[in-house]
């Protein structure tokens, strides 16, 4: 999100790279989830995405260059030996160092399995001028010689990202602060190759409401889960931008405003906490602004997922109801809950409680209202409000005597807005038909 905003703010290019050097984790399903999430958020790359694994030959070419210049060496230490040496180094509170760092391999050695390591400079300091964290320094004596190529010839992450960022022309890398230590190692590789380092900006990770690192126990993590929970992509973009960055006290803003305002200086150093109440507040704002036609389609999808059989005119009915329900909804799931009454098929099933309510004088009054509404042509919500008020006055009762039985006849107990809006949402023919059905069932 921040990379996208920064690129748009500075008329740059937003690039996507799938870092799939770990073949076990980089399944087709995992890659699809990434692109589905980005597509839902409408964060589209300005160029074709790059798949890191496909560039392995280029990565190995750079390793050969590092070997030729003395910035890398071949390490023939076995995995078991490496483990013992690493444990010993840890016990002595020093960085692990391979015995092959300053040892030239023989022809026979070269036939053996081995890794290629980066030969870091010793007894010096590497400093990353981070746009969020400030200048951060490490002693190179505290860093080990990282593996560039595994024994099977596969490039490792820290090598691959340096080569790919350089070749893709990346100028700014905005990522989680769990990569800050990697920035030190990557900077040394940039320096060894004589390449210009990109500008780094390491942002705090998102924490759960309890302050702990976000995990499954806090709820949804994957982007698609938020879509399934009924959030709109524009609301998610608004919320995510505000979660780790601030522009004064502005909480609700459009993409255009975010692009105009975004700056790395506005990113906080403390981890932001995911707050589902605030997310719901932001989402409710964007629901109110969303087109009714779009919300009707999204709501129809939820009804389908819940197993409802959809009739031909249900989408039109949902669209007609949207203006009357979206102001009270926080998610699209709420919209589905609040439009159950619209999709019910006639005749509505009335339970015993409803039949008791629709009896005696109440039933007679409902009949008189039905007759009056039959003569009423305007089905505008404001006209209906006036007509219902006039009817209550003619009956010489408060509306509390009229609303509950009318709502029962129209919805059979489902959640719905006020009576005038319920009538308007249902439409004239459907409303009168439901009133007729109720009168017939309770005679």
Which tags fit this structure?
single chain, mainly alpha, Rossmann fold, Glutamyl-tRNA Synthetase, domain 2, 3-stranded antiparallel sheet, two-stranded parallel sheet, 21 helices, protein biosynthesis, cytoplasm, ligase
In short:
The chain has 443 residues and is mostly helical. The protein contains 21 helices and nine strands. The chain has four domains: 49-203, HUPs (Rossmann fold), CATH 3.40.50.620; 223-289, Glutamyl-tRNA Synthetase, domain 2 (Orthogonal Bundle); 292-342; 352-441, Arc Repressor Mutant, subunit A, CATH 1.10.10.350.
What topology does this entry show?
Elements: H1 2-9, E1 17-18, H2 28-41, E2 50-51, H3 56-68, E3 72-75, H4 79-91, H5 107-110, E4 115-118, E5 125-130, E6 134-139, E7 147-149, H6 157-167, E8 172-176, H7 180-193, E9 199-203, H8 223-228, H9 233-244, H10 255-261, H11 276-289, H12 292-305, H13 314-325, H14 332-338, H15 340-343, H16 352-357, H17 360-374, H18 381-395, H19 403-411, H20 419-426, H21 428-441
Parallel strand pairs: 1-2, 8-9
Antiparallel strand pairs: 3-4, 4-7, 5-6
Helix pairs in contact: 1-10, 3-6, 6-7, 9-11, 12-13, 12-14, 13-20, 17-18, 17-21, 18-20, 19-21
GO cellular component, one term: cytosol
Catalytic activity: tRNA(Glu) + L-glutamate + ATP = L-glutamyl-tRNA(Glu) + AMP + diphosphate
EC number: 6.1.1.17
